[in-house]
Amino acid sequence: MSSEVLHHPYIDPIIVSVGPLDLRWYGLMYLVGFLFAWWWGNRQCRMSHYAAQGWTEQRFSDLLFWAFMGVIIGGRVGYVIFYQWAYFVDNPLYLFDITSGGMSFHGGLLGVITVLWIFAKRNGHSLLAVGDFVAPLVPVGLGAGRIGNFINGELWGRVSDVPWAMVFRGAGDLPRHPSQLYQAALEGLLLFVVLALFSRKPRPTGAIGGLFLVGYGLARFVVEYAREPDEHLGYLAFGWSMGQWLSAPMVLAGIGLMIYAYRASAGTNASASKSKGANR
């Protein structure tokens, strides 16, 4: 192991305080993700294939507000259920103790899917079409959130001797993977680039959302090998962490959704071709 060990730089989690209100880095990262989603979503509304589906900036603004609420509520509920269930059973009010922190991506995803389903029914869209529109808007917010985790010095990685490993306060004296940055790079930047490029052209309904599920699930599953599992949960069956057990079904669901999307598209195209042939 190198004699020169990196140490996580201490950064005050509170940027500024105004009376009883604190502006925290993690909250700022949520704001960054929200603003980017607003900007990119409006940009997508001007793309011809999305405009043809009836997407307007007003309709998107309505969706964005409710999707953000789905992230917050679903993320909190998911964290309590997936990671703090035993504590919650003994302390039900813990669910509302948002000052203690704790958000789950997988819970947030379920919250967003619920909101998208309601929005789709009310606006005459299919759930898969709405999911396709929203998927490219998500990764930057995920990446920003992981940077917030890094700034706070939380959710650190496993002990490692790689040259860029660093000592985190509260995690002992051994250097660890800065797994938060790995997640920011894979779940944030890389996944956004892949989805942005893939969604530039019309795709079968459900394909973009399916690719998001596959991309995030794979990225999260791989990085979990470098991330320290939650202390009170440890390693579960097959030596997997809770994050891996929650991500593996996402990959399978995403693959299934993409297969369904392309088969349905091929069937529709084949039917259209037969119809044209019959009408010659």
TrEMBL record:
<dbReference type="InterPro" id="IPR001640">
    <property type="entry name" value="Lgt"/>
</dbReference>
<protein>
    <recommendedName>
        <fullName>Phosphatidylglycerol--prolipoprotein diacylglyceryl transferase</fullName>
        <ecNumber>2.5.1.145</ecNumber>
    </recommendedName>
</protein>
<feature type="binding site">
    <location>
        <position position="146"/>
    </location>
    <ligand>
        <name>a 1,2-diacyl-sn-glycero-3-phospho-(1'-sn-glycerol)</name>
    </ligand>
</feature>
<comment type="function">
    <text>Catalyzes the transfer of the diacylglyceryl group from phosphatidylglycerol to the sulfhydryl group of the N-terminal cysteine of a prolipoprotein, the first step in the formation of mature lipoproteins.</text>
</comment>
<dbReference type="Pfam" id="PF01790">
    <property type="entry name" value="LGT"/>
</dbReference>
<dbReference type="GO" id="GO:0005886">
    <property type="term" value="C:plasma membrane"/>
</dbReference>
<feature type="transmembrane region" description="Helical">
    <location>
        <begin position="98"/>
        <end position="120"/>
    </location>
</feature>
<feature type="transmembrane region" description="Helical">
    <location>
        <begin position="243"/>
        <end position="262"/>
    </location>
</feature>
<dbReference type="GO" id="GO:0008961">
    <property type="term" value="F:phosphatidylglycerol-prolipoprotein diacylglyceryl transferase activity"/>
</dbReference>
<keyword id="KW-0472">Membrane</keyword>
<keyword id="KW-0812">Transmembrane</keyword>
<comment type="pathway">
    <text>Protein modification; lipoprotein biosynthesis (diacylglyceryl transfer).</text>
</comment>
<keyword id="KW-1003">Cell membrane</keyword>
<comment type="similarity">
    <text>Belongs to the Lgt family.</text>
</comment>
<feature type="transmembrane region" description="Helical">
    <location>
        <begin position="205"/>
        <end position="223"/>
    </location>
</feature>
<keyword id="KW-0449">Lipoprotein</keyword>
<keyword id="KW-0808">Transferase</keyword>
<dbReference type="GO" id="GO:0042158">
    <property type="term" value="P:lipoprotein biosynthetic process"/>
</dbReference>
<feature type="transmembrane region" description="Helical">
    <location>
        <begin position="181"/>
        <end position="198"/>
    </location>
</feature>
<feature type="transmembrane region" description="Helical">
    <location>
        <begin position="63"/>
        <end position="86"/>
    </location>
</feature>
<keyword id="KW-1133">Transmembrane helix</keyword>
<feature type="transmembrane region" description="Helical">
    <location>
        <begin position="127"/>
        <end position="147"/>
    </location>
</feature>
<feature type="transmembrane region" description="Helical">
    <location>
        <begin position="23"/>
        <end position="42"/>
    </location>
</feature>
